[in-house]
Amino acid sequence: MTLPIRWKIAFSTLVAITVGLLAAGWLALQSIERLELTRLEETLTSRTALAAVSLQPLIDTDSPPFSAPQLQSMVKTLSSHALARVTVIAPDGLVLADSDTANDAVTHLDNHRARPEVAQVLAGGRGTNIRLSATTGKRMFYLALPLRSSDERLIAIVRLALPMTALDARIREFEHALGVAFGIALAMAAVLSVVLSRGLTRPLSDMATVARQLAAGSLRQRIATTARDEIGVLGNALDHMADQLESIIREVTEDRAQLLAVLSSMAEGVMVLDCRGVVLQVNTALERILLIQSGTARGRTYQDVIRLQELDDLVTEVLETRVSRSGEVTTVPSGHTLHIEASVAGGRLENEACVVLVFHDVTAIRRLEKVRKDFVANVSHELRTPLTSIKGYVEALLDGIIKDHPDEALRFLHIILKQSDRLNLILDDLLQLSQIESGQVLFKREPVSLRSVVERTVALIQPILDKKNHRLTVSLPDVLPSVLGDEERLVQVLTNLLDNAVKYTPQGGTIVIAARHVDAIQTDTPSDLVELSVSDNGIGIPEADRPRVFERFYRVDKARSRELGGTGLGLAIVKHIVEGHGGQIWVEPNQPTGTRFVMTLAVEKRSN
Ligand code: ADP
Q1: pTM (predicted TM-score)
Q2: Would you say residue 64 has pLDDT above 60?
Q3: For residue 63, what pLDDT is reported?
Q4: What angle do CA 206, 212, 214 make, to 5 degrees?
Q5: pLDDT band for position 1 (cuts 50, 70, 90)
Q6: Are 513 and 591 within one domain?
Q7: Which of 88, 413, 417, 568 is exposed most, by the fewest CB atoms within 10 A?
Q8: Which ligand 1 atom sits closest to the C-alpha of 561?
Q9: Of the residues 502, 505, 549, 569, which should be mutated to test ligand 1's pocket, given the most ligand atoms within 8 Å of the CB?
Q10: Is there a single domain that holds both residue 163 and residue 41?
Q11: pLDDT band at 606; cut points 50, 70, 90
């Protein structure tokens, strides 16, 4: 972890102060010690000089030069006055007298010639030295002066020695005082450096806090400093930067929101890829079309999201050639037909829009195109069949049958009439279908009694029912609410259904018309319904054909239908009319055999 700047300043200040104090203390100690030593030396010099003067008469005589006991006693006296050890040394280094040695032991003392202070005197001048005394075992300050005869000859060396104990004690005392002062100064310096560094770095740490909040996204934060120094300049620059950042981010966010709104409101699917084929953007329409789980596509490659060979080929080509292309794919398993426009976008790097894919769902268009083509083919075929037959018979008549075989010619003319009627029928049905589909036929919205619809239809259909010996059962409840609709059209619907039931049921069959009231709660619809069904025990419709019988021209058995006079348009018209009433119609197998057509119609709502 890095230390905050406040502590760095405090610590470095403290280290600098400590080093300064230590250096100052050491220098002070050195100079005090030097001062004390100089004073000691001065004192010792004057005392040694005095001692030398006192000893001069005793030593500066000849043969015998002096009496040793006398000298020894004198030395002891001088020592007691001078409060120092007094030693007299002969020029050859022999100790003549020493105040700290017993009288008889003086002669046993080492030769002092090599003692530094003695050596210095012998070299000319005076000698000083500080060392541990071999005799007393204490640290001593030695000062030696030459004692000369009147003719300047060295006759002895007088040495005074003072123990350093007092001086050392004074220095230690000073050291102690210095240590206390040092401690106090250091403590004060520590407190001051912490306080000062905090004062100095507070604006900086405030700035750091605001910068952190800005970085975390709270762009409203400002430093708002009043300082005019460098920190003030920095604070103002940061505030300015935050203003800029806020306005840029606002603009970018607005742009992005608009872009996303456009993308998500588009009916077309959109996918944006970078140069690696990684998905940068996908809109909800594409997620819906390709059944992609919402929000899971971004960051994955497009192959990962959509496994379609044609798409893979298209994108690979566009990425390689950098030329926009388009293509069409069919998705599995949903079976959607998608037209894809793959356009080159400007990006060339990772995470830059490189290819924009726009998916148009053309399934409905393609289906309509197919329906239209099938329809044209069917219509042509349906019209051509009777026309070919008419043409054939007319040609036969022209070839002379009228003259040669008048009976046969009459039969041909009947066939021509029948085929012309069929043509008429097909054209009528087609016209009606196209009018309903194009909304030209407006259905009335009146209360219609289904009982009356059933009665009118049965009256119409009765002759063909009787012709085929069918038994018709009408099973309507006593109370059946009216439905909303167009009575004439509903009669048309029921006529078609009954006509089919009669047609596709062999002689002596049973046809049942039934109705029941269904509560809205049961079917989860806004209003109650009436369910009307027409069942027969005829040839039935195979399961595979059932969903398609409502398509135009769809017939289970074309030949049989044609033979029975069917156009293949009846059920298509029925479905359009029922759905035009807001109802539904479907077909199911009848038990044990036959077919059951069921339709629902909304009950007329009565205001109480
Ligand atoms: P068509 O004029 O051929 O009867 P529709 O559109 O009325 O045409 O019916 C379409 C096809 O549905 C018929 O050709 C027939 O194969 C079948 N179909 C309709 N109603 C019945 C039914 N009640 N029983 C058996 N098949 C039926």
Answers
A1: 0.52
A2: no
A3: 47
A4: 105
A5: low
A6: yes
A7: 417
A8: 3
A9: 549
A10: yes
A11: low
Q: What percent of the chain has pLDDT over 90?
A: 47
Residues 462, 584 share a domain: yes
Residue spans of alpha helices (H) in 401-505: 402-404, 406-437, 450-467, 487-503
Ligand 1 touching residue 541 (CB < 6 A): yes
Structural domain boundaries, residue 529:
446-602
Ligand 1 pocket residue status of 504, Cβ below 6 Å: yes
Q: Is the pLDDT of residue 400 over 50?
A: yes
Nearest residue (CA) to ligand 1, atom 21: 500
Q: How many angstroms is it from 535 CA to the middle of ligand 1?
A: 13
Q: Please indicate, yes or no, whether residues 388 and 329 belong to a single structural domain of this protein.
A: no
On whether the CB atoms of residues 264 and 251 are closer than 8 A, the answer is: no
pLDDT tens, position by position, 283-312: 999 898 888 888 899 999 999 988 889 999
Q: Is the pLDDT confidence value at 336 over 90?
A: no
Instruction: Answer yes or no: are the C-beta atoms of 128 and 107 closer than 8 Å.
Output: no
Distance CA 52, CA 58 (A): 10
Among 415, 437, 459, give the residue marking a domain's end: 437
Output 73 or 219, whichever has higher pLDDT.
73
Q: Taking all residues of the chain, what is their mean pLDDT, rounded to a whole number?
A: 89
Question: What is the total count of domains within the chain?
Answer: 4
- Please tell me if the CB atom of residue 536 comes closer than 6 angstroms to any atom of ligand 1: yes
Centre of ligand 1 from the C-alpha of residue 500, in Å: 6
Atom of ligand 1 nearest to the CA of 567: 2
Strands of the sheet containing 471-475, edge to edge, are 471-475, 510-518, 529-536, 595-602, 584-589
Ligand 1 lined by 568 (C-beta under 6 Å)? yes
Please tell me the predicted confidence (pLDDT) of residue 607: 45
Q: Which of 561, 575, 578, 597 to mutate to test the pocket of ligand 1 (most atoms within 8 A of CB)?
A: 561
* Amino acid, res. 175: E
Last residue of a domain, one of 328, 361, 394: 361
Gap between the Cα atoms of 601 and 177, Å rounded:
115
Residue 61 has pLDDT above 80, yes or no: no
User: 269 - beta bridge partners?
Assistant: 359
Look up tokens 């020894």; give the residue: 72
